[in-house]
From TrEMBL:
It comes from Methylomarinovum caldicuralii. It comes from the Bacteria. CDD domains: AGPR_1_C, AGPR_1_N. This is N-acetyl-gamma-glutamyl-phosphate reductase. Pathway: Amino-acid biosynthesis; L-arginine biosynthesis; N(2)-acetyl-L-ornithine from L-glutamate: step 3/4. One of its GO terms (cellular component) is cytoplasm. HAMAP family: ArgC_type1 (MF_00150). PANTHER family: N-ACETYL-GAMMA-GLUTAMYL-PHOSPHATE REDUCTASE, CHLOROPLASTIC-RELATED, N-ACETYL-GAMMA-GLUTAMYL-PHOSPHATE REDUCTASE, CHLOROPLASTIC-RELATED-RELATED. Keywords: Amino-acid biosynthesis, Arginine biosynthesis, Cytoplasm, NADP, Oxidoreductase. The keyword Coiled coil does not apply.
Amino acid sequence: MIKVAVVGGTGYTGVELMRILARHPQAELALVTSRGDAGRRVAEVYPNLRGVVDLTFQPPEPQLLDQADVIFFATPNGTAMQYAPALLERGRVVIDLAADFRLKDPQVWEQWYGQPHACPELLASAVYGLPEVNREKIKKARLIACPGCYPTAVQLGFLPLLHQHVIERTGLVADCKSGVSGAGRQAQVATLMAETGEGFKAYAVPGHRHLPEIRQGLQALTGKPVELTFVPHLTPMIRGIHATLYARLREEADLQALYERHYAREPFVEVLPAGSHPDTVDVRGANRCQIAVHRPGNGDVVVVLAVIDNLVKGAAGQAVQNMNLVFGLPETAGLELAGLYP
């Protein structure tokens, strides 16, 4: 059994990790940490895990983490990079669900996250944990940077088109909507139910932290710069990402067949039948991305619709998918989760 530690177990992604790992057939949840809830039982803080996780939150002391083979960091940006060098030296696998190792340029990281990087020497060796792109590299990795939720949906949506060079690299648009859980569990006026329940708004239009990550990922697919406009929106729902993506075709292609071929062997990407409109409710609780591709009026603009659960395929589920690859387990182990409906 693989022994697992979760650092930051009281956030939304932390509790999702516990929910998934507790039923994983080849992983043992050995340690869960929390500064604020140290000493309290997990089931006391999260009654939904009563009878499922029989652990007490521990303080995030480095020596406690040595009991685990793999350490998941479900922590705020800037935390994992404080622990990673020592853990890697001691032979542990580090999987970070935050942004500490996603960007390859430390200056770009500092620009978007407002602090210098604590271990820029590790950025080159960190593997970006999008299995549909980096599966073979992930298998050999010891430091994995899990993609953000928006970047997961956007990259999976654009990937087949860029891979086959059938769209222009300029003028790409990602018009994305997210549920409020994407903002985390900390108390914020902007995400109170009374503030969001009857509203719908864009935010961070001048620049969102996920923009350089998406651009970096799309550029890696093409080997050339891409021009992308990314506009996120906050919707009055708890879970889910809906990405509506626009691109201009540069050559004729059977788009439906292109997507079906590209994702034919991917266990967690489902291309819906032609004419479909994916719904975030259908992927709630599942480690799955559903995609539909359209060509309105048979013109030269392609519209791709991609939906994920931001807490699962956009965070905890994808992190476990990466763990499975690193340890040579079936990629679907512990993740064969049907969506929650309604």
